[in-house]
Amino acid sequence: MEGLAQTSFCCIRGAAGGREVCNRMDGWPHQAAQGWETIVCRTPDVFFQTINSNQPQVFIADDAFGRTEYDPTRTSRWEADLDLVLHRLDRRHWLIWTSRKHILERACEKMDAQGKARSFPDPGAVLVDVSQLSVEERALILFRHARSAALEQEAKKLVRGHAAEIIQDPEFTPERIRRFVHEGLPSIVSEINSEKITTAQVNLAIKEALRNPTKQMRVTFEKLPSAYKWFLVALLEAPEVEGSSLLRIKGNLEKLRSLYDAYCSDRTINPSRSLWNISRKRL
Amino acid sequence: MEHLTEAFVKVRSTEWGGTVVDWIHPSYRDLVIDELIQNADLRNTFLRRASLEGVKLAVSDTGGQYGNRRLPFIRSAESWDVLQERCLSLVKADVGDREVLEHLQMRLLKAHRRSRRPAGLE
Questions:
Q1: For residue range A162-179, what is the model confidence (pLDDT) as tens digits?
Q2: Residue of B nearest to A18 (CA)
Q3: Which of A20, A21, A68, A259 to mutate to test the interface with B (most CBs of B within 10 A)?
Q4: Residues of A in contact with B31 (CB under 8 A)
Q5: Buried b vs exposed e over A201-210: b needs ≥16 C-beta within 10 Å?
Q6: Strand order through the sheet with A93-99
Q7: Residue B13 and residue A248: Cα distance in Å, rounded?
Q8: B60 touches A: beta carbon within 8 Å
Q9: Structure confidence at residue B96 as a pLDDT band (50, 70, 90)
Q10: In this prediction, does ipTM exceed 0.90?
Protein backbone atom coordinates (compact mmCIF):
# COMPACT_ATOMS: atom_id res chain seq x y z
CA MET A 1 0.00 0.00 0.00
CA GLU A 2 2.89 2.33 0.82
CA GLY A 3 4.56 1.56 -2.53
CA LEU A 4 1.29 2.09 -4.33
CA ALA A 5 0.92 5.52 -2.74
CA GLN A 6 4.36 6.46 -4.11
CA THR A 7 4.13 5.08 -7.66
CA SER A 8 0.31 5.05 -8.21
CA PHE A 9 0.88 1.74 -9.99
CA CYS A 10 1.51 -1.83 -8.97
CA CYS A 11 1.12 -5.34 -10.21
CA ILE A 12 -0.22 -8.14 -8.03
CA ARG A 13 0.78 -11.70 -8.84
CA GLY A 14 -1.63 -14.51 -8.09
CA ALA A 15 -4.43 -12.31 -6.81
CA ALA A 16 -8.04 -13.42 -6.97
CA GLY A 17 -10.78 -11.17 -8.05
CA GLY A 18 -11.22 -7.45 -8.75
CA ARG A 19 -12.57 -5.60 -5.76
CA GLU A 20 -11.36 -8.33 -3.43
CA VAL A 21 -7.84 -7.08 -4.18
CA CYS A 22 -8.72 -3.80 -2.49
CA ASN A 23 -10.43 -5.46 0.43
CA ARG A 24 -7.24 -7.39 1.13
CA MET A 25 -5.03 -4.29 1.15
CA ASP A 26 -4.11 -3.24 4.66
CA GLY A 27 -4.86 0.46 4.36
CA TRP A 28 -7.89 0.10 2.09
CA PRO A 29 -10.62 0.72 4.69
CA HIS A 30 -9.03 4.12 5.31
CA GLN A 31 -9.02 4.95 1.57
CA ALA A 32 -12.61 3.70 1.17
CA ALA A 33 -13.72 5.87 4.08
CA GLN A 34 -12.22 8.85 2.27
CA GLY A 35 -14.49 8.22 -0.69
CA TRP A 36 -12.16 6.34 -3.04
CA GLU A 37 -13.99 4.66 -5.88
CA THR A 38 -13.03 1.17 -7.11
CA ILE A 39 -13.30 0.52 -10.83
CA VAL A 40 -12.60 -2.84 -12.42
CA CYS A 41 -11.25 -2.29 -15.94
CA ARG A 42 -9.67 -4.90 -18.16
CA THR A 43 -8.70 -2.52 -20.94
CA PRO A 44 -7.48 1.08 -21.14
CA ASP A 45 -10.78 2.07 -22.88
CA VAL A 46 -12.73 1.64 -19.67
CA PHE A 47 -9.99 3.49 -17.78
CA PHE A 48 -10.28 6.54 -20.05
CA GLN A 49 -14.07 6.48 -19.99
CA THR A 50 -14.32 6.39 -16.22
CA ILE A 51 -11.38 8.42 -14.92
CA ASN A 52 -12.59 11.48 -13.07
CA SER A 53 -10.05 14.05 -11.92
CA ASN A 54 -12.36 15.24 -9.11
CA GLN A 55 -12.73 11.80 -7.56
CA PRO A 56 -10.06 9.62 -5.97
CA GLN A 57 -10.14 6.30 -7.84
CA VAL A 58 -8.37 2.98 -7.89
CA PHE A 59 -8.51 1.09 -11.20
CA ILE A 60 -8.09 -2.65 -11.03
CA ALA A 61 -7.17 -4.39 -14.25
CA ASP A 62 -7.97 -7.87 -13.08
CA ASP A 63 -6.13 -10.56 -15.07
CA ALA A 64 -4.72 -7.73 -17.17
CA PHE A 65 -3.00 -9.97 -19.73
CA GLY A 66 -5.30 -12.95 -19.83
CA ARG A 67 -7.27 -14.92 -17.34
CA THR A 68 -5.99 -18.47 -17.53
CA GLU A 69 -3.73 -18.06 -20.57
CA TYR A 70 -1.66 -15.26 -22.03
CA ASP A 71 -3.74 -13.07 -24.34
CA PRO A 72 -1.60 -11.06 -26.77
CA THR A 73 -4.58 -8.88 -27.73
CA ARG A 74 -4.85 -7.49 -24.21
CA THR A 75 -1.11 -6.89 -24.01
CA SER A 76 -1.27 -4.91 -27.26
CA ARG A 77 -4.04 -2.72 -25.84
CA TRP A 78 -2.11 -1.90 -22.69
CA GLU A 79 1.09 -1.47 -24.68
CA ALA A 80 -0.52 1.06 -27.03
CA ASP A 81 -2.06 3.20 -24.30
CA LEU A 82 0.19 2.68 -21.30
CA ASP A 83 2.01 5.96 -21.76
CA LEU A 84 -1.28 7.89 -21.72
CA VAL A 85 -2.60 5.86 -18.81
CA LEU A 86 0.50 6.52 -16.72
CA HIS A 87 0.23 10.25 -17.38
CA ARG A 88 -3.24 10.22 -15.82
CA LEU A 89 -2.11 8.46 -12.65
CA ASP A 90 -1.30 10.46 -9.54
CA ARG A 91 -1.68 10.34 -5.77
CA ARG A 92 -5.46 10.18 -6.16
CA HIS A 93 -5.61 7.85 -9.17
CA TRP A 94 -4.04 4.43 -8.86
CA LEU A 95 -3.78 1.50 -11.22
CA ILE A 96 -3.41 -2.11 -10.11
CA TRP A 97 -2.81 -4.95 -12.54
CA THR A 98 -3.41 -8.45 -11.31
CA SER A 99 -1.94 -11.41 -13.13
CA ARG A 100 -0.70 -14.94 -12.76
CA LYS A 101 3.08 -14.94 -12.48
CA HIS A 102 3.91 -16.60 -15.81
CA ILE A 103 1.35 -14.54 -17.74
CA LEU A 104 2.81 -11.30 -16.35
CA GLU A 105 6.33 -12.43 -17.23
CA ARG A 106 5.24 -13.23 -20.77
CA ALA A 107 3.46 -9.88 -21.14
CA CYS A 108 6.46 -7.91 -19.86
CA GLU A 109 8.72 -9.80 -22.24
CA LYS A 110 6.49 -8.90 -25.21
CA MET A 111 5.54 -5.37 -24.30
CA ASP A 112 7.24 -2.62 -26.24
CA ALA A 113 6.13 0.46 -24.36
CA GLN A 114 6.71 4.03 -25.45
CA GLY A 115 7.36 7.37 -23.71
CA LYS A 116 6.89 7.42 -19.94
CA ALA A 117 5.76 3.83 -20.17
CA ARG A 118 9.18 2.78 -21.44
CA SER A 119 10.39 2.47 -17.89
CA PHE A 120 7.18 0.62 -17.01
CA PRO A 121 6.31 -1.96 -16.05
CA ASP A 122 9.28 -2.64 -13.85
CA PRO A 123 7.84 -5.67 -12.15
CA GLY A 124 10.71 -5.88 -9.68
CA ALA A 125 9.88 -2.43 -8.36
CA VAL A 126 6.11 -2.59 -8.27
CA LEU A 127 5.32 -6.27 -7.83
CA VAL A 128 3.35 -7.67 -4.94
CA ASP A 129 3.30 -11.46 -4.66
CA VAL A 130 0.26 -12.73 -2.78
CA SER A 131 1.90 -16.05 -2.04
CA GLN A 132 4.17 -14.11 0.34
CA LEU A 133 1.51 -13.82 3.01
CA SER A 134 2.48 -13.36 6.63
CA VAL A 135 1.20 -15.76 9.30
CA GLU A 136 -1.20 -13.06 10.52
CA GLU A 137 -2.58 -12.52 7.01
CA ARG A 138 -3.05 -16.26 6.50
CA ALA A 139 -4.79 -16.57 9.85
CA LEU A 140 -7.07 -13.68 8.97
CA ILE A 141 -7.97 -15.24 5.61
CA LEU A 142 -8.83 -18.55 7.30
CA PHE A 143 -10.83 -16.78 9.98
CA ARG A 144 -12.81 -14.68 7.46
CA HIS A 145 -13.71 -17.64 5.27
CA ALA A 146 -14.70 -19.73 8.28
CA ARG A 147 -16.85 -16.91 9.63
CA SER A 148 -18.59 -16.29 6.30
CA ALA A 149 -19.34 -20.01 5.93
CA ALA A 150 -21.37 -20.02 9.19
CA LEU A 151 -19.85 -23.36 10.20
CA GLU A 152 -21.41 -25.89 12.51
CA GLN A 153 -19.89 -26.36 15.97
CA GLU A 154 -17.97 -29.49 14.94
CA ALA A 155 -16.47 -27.76 11.90
CA LYS A 156 -15.42 -24.75 14.00
CA LYS A 157 -13.74 -27.12 16.45
CA LEU A 158 -11.88 -28.78 13.60
CA VAL A 159 -10.66 -25.45 12.21
CA ARG A 160 -9.52 -24.30 15.66
CA GLY A 161 -7.74 -27.58 16.33
CA HIS A 162 -5.89 -27.60 13.00
CA ALA A 163 -5.47 -23.86 12.40
CA ALA A 164 -1.69 -23.90 12.84
CA GLU A 165 -1.18 -26.70 10.27
CA ILE A 166 -3.58 -25.11 7.80
CA ILE A 167 -1.92 -21.69 8.04
CA GLN A 168 1.57 -23.12 7.69
CA ASP A 169 0.75 -25.44 4.83
CA PRO A 170 3.03 -24.63 1.86
CA GLU A 171 0.04 -24.98 -0.49
CA PHE A 172 -1.87 -22.22 1.30
CA THR A 173 -3.57 -19.77 -1.05
CA PRO A 174 -6.67 -17.69 -0.33
CA GLU A 175 -8.72 -19.59 -2.93
CA ARG A 176 -7.65 -23.00 -1.61
CA ILE A 177 -8.71 -21.95 1.86
CA ARG A 178 -12.08 -20.77 0.55
CA ARG A 179 -12.61 -24.13 -1.13
CA PHE A 180 -11.38 -26.04 1.88
CA VAL A 181 -13.82 -24.27 4.18
CA HIS A 182 -16.81 -24.50 1.82
CA GLU A 183 -16.19 -27.81 0.09
CA GLY A 184 -13.58 -29.95 1.85
CA LEU A 185 -14.49 -29.29 5.47
CA PRO A 186 -18.15 -30.47 5.39
CA SER A 187 -17.20 -33.92 4.12
CA ILE A 188 -14.41 -34.30 6.69
CA VAL A 189 -16.83 -33.29 9.45
CA SER A 190 -19.45 -35.76 8.29
CA GLU A 191 -16.86 -38.54 8.35
CA ILE A 192 -15.82 -37.53 11.87
CA ASN A 193 -19.48 -37.55 12.93
CA SER A 194 -19.98 -41.04 11.57
CA GLU A 195 -16.74 -42.11 13.30
CA LYS A 196 -15.34 -43.47 10.06
CA ILE A 197 -12.11 -41.57 10.37
CA THR A 198 -9.18 -41.56 12.81
CA THR A 199 -7.24 -38.48 13.97
CA ALA A 200 -4.36 -39.34 11.67
CA GLN A 201 -6.79 -39.65 8.76
CA VAL A 202 -8.29 -36.25 9.61
CA ASN A 203 -4.82 -34.68 9.30
CA LEU A 204 -4.30 -36.42 5.97
CA ALA A 205 -7.74 -35.41 4.69
CA ILE A 206 -7.02 -31.74 5.51
CA LYS A 207 -3.67 -31.89 3.70
CA GLU A 208 -5.25 -33.60 0.71
CA ALA A 209 -8.06 -31.03 0.55
CA LEU A 210 -5.49 -28.21 0.48
CA ARG A 211 -3.13 -29.86 -1.98
CA ASN A 212 -5.65 -31.23 -4.43
CA PRO A 213 -8.52 -28.75 -4.33
CA THR A 214 -9.98 -29.53 -7.75
CA LYS A 215 -10.43 -33.27 -7.23
CA GLN A 216 -14.04 -32.92 -6.12
CA MET A 217 -14.74 -30.40 -8.86
CA ARG A 218 -13.61 -32.86 -11.53
CA VAL A 219 -15.96 -35.48 -10.18
CA THR A 220 -18.78 -32.92 -10.17
CA PHE A 221 -18.03 -31.89 -13.78
CA GLU A 222 -18.00 -35.46 -15.00
CA LYS A 223 -21.41 -36.10 -13.46
CA LEU A 224 -23.03 -33.05 -15.05
CA PRO A 225 -25.60 -33.64 -17.81
CA SER A 226 -24.20 -32.77 -21.21
CA ALA A 227 -26.28 -29.58 -21.55
CA TYR A 228 -24.62 -28.18 -18.41
CA LYS A 229 -21.18 -29.13 -19.66
CA TRP A 230 -21.84 -27.21 -22.89
CA PHE A 231 -23.01 -24.22 -20.91
CA LEU A 232 -19.62 -24.18 -19.15
CA VAL A 233 -17.80 -24.68 -22.46
CA ALA A 234 -19.73 -21.71 -23.89
CA LEU A 235 -18.63 -19.68 -20.87
CA LEU A 236 -15.00 -20.28 -21.89
CA GLU A 237 -15.72 -18.11 -24.91
CA ALA A 238 -17.97 -15.50 -23.31
CA PRO A 239 -16.46 -12.02 -23.34
CA GLU A 240 -15.42 -10.54 -20.03
CA VAL A 241 -17.80 -7.81 -19.04
CA GLU A 242 -15.14 -5.37 -17.84
CA GLY A 243 -13.66 -5.26 -21.32
CA SER A 244 -16.46 -3.26 -22.94
CA SER A 245 -18.82 -0.49 -21.90
CA LEU A 246 -21.79 -2.10 -23.64
CA LEU A 247 -21.28 -5.38 -21.81
CA ARG A 248 -20.89 -3.54 -18.51
CA ILE A 249 -24.43 -2.27 -19.07
CA LYS A 250 -26.10 -5.25 -20.73
CA GLY A 251 -24.22 -8.09 -19.10
CA ASN A 252 -23.05 -11.14 -21.03
CA LEU A 253 -26.15 -13.33 -20.91
CA GLU A 254 -27.23 -12.67 -24.49
CA LYS A 255 -23.79 -13.45 -25.87
CA LEU A 256 -23.55 -16.53 -23.69
CA ARG A 257 -26.84 -17.76 -25.09
CA SER A 258 -25.69 -17.43 -28.70
CA LEU A 259 -22.46 -19.29 -27.86
CA TYR A 260 -24.41 -22.01 -26.10
CA ASP A 261 -26.82 -22.31 -29.02
CA ALA A 262 -23.88 -22.78 -31.40
CA TYR A 263 -22.90 -25.92 -29.49
CA CYS A 264 -26.39 -27.14 -28.87
CA SER A 265 -28.15 -26.39 -32.15
CA ASP A 266 -27.95 -30.09 -32.91
CA ARG A 267 -30.30 -32.19 -30.79
CA THR A 268 -27.91 -35.13 -30.88
CA ILE A 269 -25.48 -33.07 -28.80
CA ASN A 270 -27.99 -31.67 -26.40
CA PRO A 271 -31.20 -33.55 -25.81
CA SER A 272 -32.04 -31.04 -23.08
CA ARG A 273 -32.82 -27.97 -25.16
CA SER A 274 -34.73 -26.52 -22.30
CA LEU A 275 -31.60 -25.80 -20.25
CA TRP A 276 -31.37 -22.25 -21.47
CA ASN A 277 -35.00 -21.48 -20.74
CA ILE A 278 -34.78 -23.03 -17.30
CA SER A 279 -31.58 -21.12 -16.55
CA ARG A 280 -33.02 -17.86 -17.74
CA LYS A 281 -36.14 -18.14 -15.62
CA ARG A 282 -34.05 -18.85 -12.56
CA LEU A 283 -31.58 -16.07 -13.29
CA MET B 1 -28.54 -23.59 -12.95
CA GLU B 2 -28.19 -24.34 -9.24
CA HIS B 3 -25.93 -27.24 -10.24
CA LEU B 4 -23.58 -24.66 -11.68
CA THR B 5 -23.90 -21.77 -9.24
CA GLU B 6 -23.09 -24.08 -6.35
CA ALA B 7 -19.85 -25.10 -7.92
CA PHE B 8 -18.66 -23.35 -11.07
CA VAL B 9 -20.27 -20.01 -11.82
CA LYS B 10 -21.53 -16.92 -10.10
CA VAL B 11 -24.34 -14.73 -11.36
CA ARG B 12 -24.63 -11.03 -10.64
CA SER B 13 -26.58 -8.06 -11.93
CA THR B 14 -25.02 -5.00 -13.50
CA GLU B 15 -25.89 -1.55 -12.18
CA TRP B 16 -28.14 -1.16 -15.21
CA GLY B 17 -30.09 -4.36 -14.72
CA GLY B 18 -28.15 -6.67 -17.05
CA THR B 19 -27.02 -10.13 -15.95
CA VAL B 20 -23.45 -11.33 -15.80
CA VAL B 21 -22.42 -14.96 -15.56
CA ASP B 22 -18.79 -15.54 -14.65
CA TRP B 23 -16.50 -18.19 -13.17
CA ILE B 24 -16.33 -18.35 -9.39
CA HIS B 25 -12.54 -18.42 -9.81
CA PRO B 26 -10.18 -18.78 -12.81
CA SER B 27 -9.22 -22.26 -11.59
CA TYR B 28 -12.73 -23.48 -12.56
CA ARG B 29 -12.10 -22.22 -16.07
CA ASP B 30 -8.80 -24.13 -16.01
CA LEU B 31 -10.68 -27.22 -14.93
CA VAL B 32 -13.14 -27.04 -17.84
CA ILE B 33 -10.25 -26.50 -20.28
CA ASP B 34 -8.51 -29.56 -18.80
CA GLU B 35 -11.68 -31.60 -19.21
CA LEU B 36 -11.87 -30.59 -22.89
CA ILE B 37 -8.24 -31.61 -23.31
CA GLN B 38 -9.02 -35.05 -21.87
CA ASN B 39 -12.25 -35.68 -23.75
CA ALA B 40 -11.78 -36.04 -27.51
CA ASP B 41 -15.51 -35.80 -28.31
CA LEU B 42 -16.00 -32.56 -26.40
CA ARG B 43 -12.75 -31.19 -27.78
CA ASN B 44 -13.48 -31.89 -31.44
CA THR B 45 -17.01 -30.51 -31.19
CA PHE B 46 -15.53 -27.41 -29.54
CA LEU B 47 -13.02 -26.97 -32.37
CA ARG B 48 -15.72 -27.44 -35.03
CA ARG B 49 -18.03 -24.81 -33.55
CA ALA B 50 -15.72 -22.43 -31.72
CA SER B 51 -16.05 -18.68 -32.03
CA LEU B 52 -12.99 -16.48 -32.52
CA GLU B 53 -12.44 -16.49 -28.74
CA GLY B 54 -12.46 -20.28 -28.80
CA VAL B 55 -9.94 -20.38 -31.64
CA LYS B 56 -7.66 -18.04 -29.68
CA LEU B 57 -7.95 -20.32 -26.68
CA ALA B 58 -7.15 -23.39 -28.81
CA VAL B 59 -3.87 -21.90 -30.03
CA SER B 60 -2.96 -20.15 -26.78
CA ASP B 61 0.28 -20.70 -24.94
CA THR B 62 1.48 -19.90 -21.42
CA GLY B 63 -1.78 -21.18 -19.99
CA GLY B 64 -2.81 -23.12 -16.91
CA GLN B 65 -1.87 -22.71 -13.29
CA TYR B 66 1.86 -22.99 -13.96
CA GLY B 67 2.01 -21.58 -17.48
CA ASN B 68 2.90 -24.87 -19.12
CA ARG B 69 -0.33 -25.38 -21.06
CA ARG B 70 0.35 -24.79 -24.75
CA LEU B 71 -1.98 -25.34 -27.73
CA PRO B 72 -4.42 -27.03 -25.36
CA PHE B 73 -6.86 -28.49 -27.87
CA ILE B 74 -4.40 -29.49 -30.56
CA ARG B 75 -3.75 -33.13 -29.83
CA SER B 76 -3.33 -34.59 -33.32
CA ALA B 77 -3.02 -33.77 -37.01
CA GLU B 78 -6.80 -34.08 -37.18
CA SER B 79 -7.17 -31.28 -34.61
CA TRP B 80 -5.14 -29.00 -36.87
CA ASP B 81 -7.35 -29.82 -39.83
CA VAL B 82 -10.56 -29.22 -37.88
CA LEU B 83 -9.20 -25.94 -36.54
CA GLN B 84 -8.04 -24.77 -39.93
CA GLU B 85 -11.46 -25.50 -41.37
CA ARG B 86 -13.10 -23.56 -38.55
CA CYS B 87 -10.78 -20.57 -39.05
CA LEU B 88 -11.60 -20.48 -42.75
CA SER B 89 -15.30 -20.60 -42.07
CA LEU B 90 -14.99 -17.76 -39.53
CA VAL B 91 -13.06 -15.68 -42.08
CA LYS B 92 -15.78 -16.34 -44.66
CA ALA B 93 -18.50 -15.43 -42.21
CA ASP B 94 -16.57 -12.22 -41.50
CA VAL B 95 -17.18 -12.36 -37.75
CA GLY B 96 -15.07 -9.24 -37.27
CA ASP B 97 -11.48 -9.01 -36.13
CA ARG B 98 -10.40 -10.09 -39.60
CA GLU B 99 -6.84 -9.03 -38.81
CA VAL B 100 -6.73 -11.31 -35.78
CA LEU B 101 -8.07 -14.21 -37.82
CA GLU B 102 -5.56 -13.69 -40.61
CA HIS B 103 -2.77 -13.48 -38.05
CA LEU B 104 -4.06 -16.65 -36.44
CA GLN B 105 -4.21 -18.41 -39.77
CA MET B 106 -0.54 -17.57 -40.42
CA ARG B 107 0.39 -18.72 -36.94
CA LEU B 108 -1.54 -21.90 -37.45
CA LEU B 109 0.20 -22.72 -40.69
CA LYS B 110 3.62 -22.12 -39.12
CA ALA B 111 2.80 -24.23 -36.09
CA HIS B 112 1.33 -26.93 -38.30
CA ARG B 113 4.51 -27.09 -40.39
CA ARG B 114 6.64 -27.22 -37.24
CA SER B 115 4.54 -30.04 -35.80
CA ARG B 116 5.10 -32.12 -38.94
CA ARG B 117 8.83 -31.44 -39.11
CA PRO B 118 10.97 -34.37 -37.89
CA ALA B 119 12.38 -33.93 -34.39
CA GLY B 120 15.81 -32.29 -34.21
CA LEU B 121 15.28 -29.88 -37.10
CA GLU B 122 13.99 -27.02 -34.92
A1: 999 899 888 888 878 888
A2: B25
A3: A68
A4: 214, 217-218, 221
A5: ebeebbeebb
A6: A37-40, A57-61, A93-99, A9-13, A127-129
A7: 10
A8: yes
A9: low
A10: no
Contact B32/A236, CB-based, under 8 Å?
A: yes
Bigger pLDDT: A218 or A8? A218
Best A110, A228, A232 member to test B by mutation, with max B CBs in 10 Å, is A232
In this prediction, what percent of chain B has a pLDDT beyond 90? Answer: 26
**Could you tell me if residue A130 is left (phi over 0), alpha (psi between -120 and 50 degrees) or otherwise beta?**
alpha
Q: Cβ separation of B66 and A253 shorter than 8 Å?
A: no
Q: Give the architecture-level CATH label for domain A2-129.
A: 3-Layer(aba) Sandwich (3.40)
Across A61-70, B3-12, B46-55, least confident range:
B3-12
User: Could you tell me the pTM of the whole model?
Assistant: 0.76
pLDDT reading at A11 higher than 90: no
Give the DSSP per-residue string, chain A. -HHHHHHSEEEEET---HHHHHHHSTTHHHHHHTTPEEEE-SSHHHHHHH--TTS-EEEEETTTT-SSB--HHHHHHHHHHHHHHHHH-BTTEEEEEEE-HHHHHHHHHH----GGGGG---HHHHEEETT---HHHHHHHHHHHHHHTT--HHHHHHHHHHHHHHHH-TT--HHHHHHIIIIIHHHHHHHHHTT---HHHHHHHHHHHHH-TTHHHHHHHHHS-HHHHHHHHHHHHSPPGGG-HHHHHHBSHHHHHHHHHHHHSSTTT-S-TTHHHHHHHH-
